Amino acid sequence: MSSKHESPDKKDVSGTHKRLSNLMHQAGNRYCADCGTPEPKWVSSSLGVFICIKCSGIHRSLGVHISKIASLKLDQWSDEQVDALEKLGGNTFLNKKYEACLPSNIKKPKPHTSIEERSEYIRKKYEELQFMMESDENSLCPFVPSQGRSVSLGPSSSSCYTYHIDNKKYEKALTRHHIGHAFRKSWTRKDSEHKCSKKSTSLAGMVEFVGLIKVNVRKGTHLAIRDVVTSDPYVILSLGHQSVKTRVIRNNLNPVWNESLMLSIPENIPPLKVLVYDKDTFSTDDFMGEAEIDIQPLVLAAIAYEKSTANESVQLEKFVESRDNTLVRDGVISLEDGKIKQEISVRLQNVERGVLEIELECVPLIQ
Ligand SMILES: [Zn+2]
Q1: Looking at the domain that runs over 12-188, which CATH code has it been given?
Q2: pLDDT tens readout for residues 42-58
Q3: Ligand 1 centroid to 305 CA: how many Å?
Q4: Given this structure, which CATH class describes domain 207-364?
Q5: pLDDT tens profile 288-332
Q6: How remote is the CA of residue 110 from the centroid of ligand 1, in Å?
Q7: Cα of 55 to ligand 1 centre, how many Å?
Q8: CB neighbours (10 Å) of residue 219?
Q9: What mean pLDDT is predicted for residues 23-43?
Q10: How far apart are the CA of 131 and the centre of ligand 1, in A?
């Protein structure tokens, strides 16, 4: 990796951190792009907007194919990711794009706007792109600039976006910013399901979240064969209405992903569903097993720890294999550097073989 930082004695990490911090302190980024709450701690790394915790929950429920949420504090940021974020232009620029044609009868959410209203607004803004300028038949928007005109509105925006954006460009931009082609393709089926069940997914945004769960999908062992002698496995995690997935690892029955994915925890704390699939280019992806993990004990331990004073000891639980769970090894909930974690080895179900190792970390939202 190249080092393009001022002083050689400084590590890359601190330079990256500094740049991220500078971005956070840009005037427009000091308030949530969607509701105006001060000091947002979250960002959509795919869209580029800095947002508050409440709005981040709704963004997550849109799915990572629309908005990929990262924590400005809790996630590790690489130089390249900060570059990509810088290029997206920040809240001021992006709100001019996504709210270019905001009708006067639609009120933008405020910090205390209800979750229903907030959700409706965010969906219209980023999923349906209702307030964006239309590219070709722009008859609906009174503020359309002349064809091909490009207006750069942000400090580093000119190379990345033209104000006059069309859907194809938008798709391209998404692809460029972390959402790979294979990933989008594999979501095609999900997208169509999504459309059919609009009603139920729109309810997803109305769920209150009690925390976040960071799932590190470590590795798979002795996975099932789906392509003659091997498989191209990837993992889908789903919690309530949200789902996220890992990258595909080609030709490997013992894949190592070491990929961290973040999900919001809905109030009713549903089980975390883990699904393994084999990526096929020309046909539907093949099923390679599944598992269901009860995350309630972890969430409750994290909340108990957060509520306790520093001197109090926290009772951390140990999970013993039982009739209805599929753990290969005991899943121990532990406290590491003030973080509540759980390491789990899970035997995949409804498949001939395969074990998955994952690590869970819970971040409660009691503030
Ligand atoms: Zn917000």
Answers
A1: 1.10.220.150
A2: 999 999 999 998 899 89
A3: 27
A4: mainly beta
A5: 999 999 898 888 888 777 766 554 555 566 655 554 556 666 577
A6: 8
A7: 4
A8: 17
A9: 94
A10: 17
